[in-house]
Design brief:
Its main location: cytoplasm. This is Probable butyrate kinase. By secondary structure, the protein is α/β, with parallel strands linked by helices. It folds into two domains: about 5-135 and about 335-345, Nucleotidyltransferase, domain 5, CATH 3.30.420; about 155-335, ATPase, nucleotide binding domain (Nucleotidyltransferase, domain 5), CATH 3.30.420.40. The protein contains twelve helices and eleven strands. It has helices at about 35-40, 50-65, 95-100, 110-125, 160-170, 225-230, 235-245, 250-255, 260-265, 270-295, 310-320, 335-345, and strands at about 5-10, 15-25, 25-35, 75, 90, 130, 180-185, 190-195, 200-205, 300-305, 325-330. The strands form two sheets. A six-stranded mixed beta sheet has the order 3-2-1-4-6-5. It starts with 5 loop residues before the first strand and ends in a 21-residue tail after the last helix. The mean pLDDT is about 95.
């Protein structure tokens, strides 16, 4: 076994692509590669952007005098895939095909992650992986059924950050993730709250569908009858946007800047203070509900994401929830490091690499 592993990680966003070269747990190089928005708009679909994004990344690496010779693996942010268990997956032809065409019906820049990783892996003769992509689904059966026959729950969460936060916390305690029960939150531009039982994310809130607490751009859970009344006279696309783009802080205060809202709240601005405190109140309610999923057997409540830098937010969560279990804060995001860690766990034999089947991990109850 080698002493060190170099991993190249790629995380495409709407107008930029984050790249990082990581050796073990040390970031050797990291850059957010900007792409011309008007140039991106010329392409017919997400995957058509691949040659342009690839060229932009290669040019930046050359300008920065960064060589990828000798890398042990490439990891791309997963997207467009069919629901699967968590883990590290080899980017084979099937996974690549599904990412390219967006087999799950969702067009998102993360689809380019596997495509870009595969391109670099071919060039540098190394394996290519995705790690805990957004379509991870490990729900227990009790979390799936709803009160409408034929309408069953699925979830979309910040699976990569949630699982990596739990893995790192367990290691810091001398424990294994697979032996612990956690309520894990990602609190950033989106807010995910999830229950992890012995290495599986058995429940959580579908933030793409509008579940959970309100967030900077997301409405969170709303009464069905209230939503129906809100939708009257509105275009369906406008109503859908409030779930993920124009809800939450944006709907109330016209901004998704949580720092600005928290500063207004601290200064005593009444509306901002109410919205800020309500968002935290809703996070606390969701944490409590996930604790019941774990039957109160919670080894820790873990907080990750950019908003966790805010001391007031962490303080309010501790005050409301620390009677359940100790609250630990891991501010910021470490998606790039998380992707590298997943690859290294496979390369060192700590985990078995998984094969993507393209078959949904769950497709309905036998009695339906």
């Amino acid at each position: 076994m080698k002493d060190s592993y170099k991993i190249f990680t790629i995380n495409p966003g709407s107008t930029s692509t984050k790249i990082a070269l990581i050796e073990n747990d040390k970031v050797l190089f990291s850059k957010n590669v900007s792409h011309d928005a008007s140039k991106l708009a010329e392409f017919d679909g997400i995957s058509a952007q691949l040659p342009y994004r690839l060229e932009t990344i290669l040019n930046l690496l050359k300008e920065s005098n960064i060589s990828l010779e000798g890398i042990d693996a490439c990891v791309g942010r997963g997207g467009g895939l069919i629901a699967m268990e968590g883990g590290t997956y080899e980017i084979d032809d099937l996974l690549l095909d599904h990412a390219t065409r967006g087999a799950n019906g969702v067009q998102h820049p993360a689809q380019l992650g596997p495509q870009l990783a595969r391109e670099f892996a071919k060039q540098y003769n190394c394996p290519a992986f995705v790690v805990n992509p957004p379509d991870v689904d490990e729900l227990q059966d009790l979390a799936r059924l709803t009160g409408i026959k034929g309408v069953n729950r699925i979830i979309h969460l910040h699976a990569l950050n949630l699982k990596e936060t739990a893995i790192r916390h367990a290691q810091s305690q001398g424990k294994k993730y697979e032996e612990q029960n956690y309520v894990v939150c990602h609190i950033g531009g989106g807010i995910s709250v999830s229950a992890h039982r012995q290495g599986k994310m058995v429940d959580g809130y579908d933030i793409v569908g509008g579940e959970g607490p309100m967030a900077p751009t997301r409405c969170g859970s709303v009464s069905v009858s209230d939503l129906i009344n809100y939708a009257k006279g509105k275009d369906l696309s406008e109503v859908k946007k409030v779930c993920t783009k124009t809800g939450g802080l944006v709907s109330h205060l016209g901004t998704s800047d949580a720092l600005s809202v928290s500063q207004q709240a601290e200064a005593g601005e009444p509306y901002a203070k109410m919205v800020w405190n309500t968002m935290i109140y809703q996070i606390n309610k969701c944490i409590g509900s996930m604790a019941t999923v774990l039957h109160g057997k919670v080894d820790g409540i873990l907080l990750g994401g950019g908003m966790v830098y805010n001391k007031d937010l962490v303080s309010q969560i501790k005050e409301a929830c620390e009677w359940i279990a100790p609250v630990s804060a891991y501010p910021g995001e470490f998606e790039m490091e998380a992707m590298a860690s997943g690859a290294i766990r496979v390369l060192t034999g700590q985990e078995q690499v998984k094969k993507y089947t393209g078959v949904p991990v769950w497709s309905g109850f036998d009695f339906e």
